[in-house]
Amino acid sequence: xxxxxxxxxxxxxxxxATASATHxxxxxxxxxxxxxxxxLYATETDTEDGHLIGTLDSPALAAHAATFDPAFxxxxxxxxxxxxxxxxxxxxxxxxxxxxxxxxxxxxxxxGSRLVWPCPEISDLAYAxxxxxxxx
Length: 136
Prior knowledge:
alpha+beta
């Protein structure tokens, strides 16, 4: 279980590398075309068409791609990294590993015991990143 934190950080690195590999000027905000919603542009303003990225099969796909553009991904990565930095494992004793932040806060689980690793925040972050928190 102790490697869950390392797996989360590695996945964040993978996502960042993918977003960073997007060639300039495509690393800013993306939006759909004004007339035909299937076209996708990289632009710094809403008043110009910008750089054509491509045409997708439907306006819904273009809108989805524009919503999760590289600018969004970089903001999300920053937030996810802050969460991972706040919730780090430490060996409380010879037996249990706990979350540094959750254990310091005195948080307890539903059964009244102190939270052990992984804490709910890291488990949720792992799940959102496509990692099975239980290691399966």
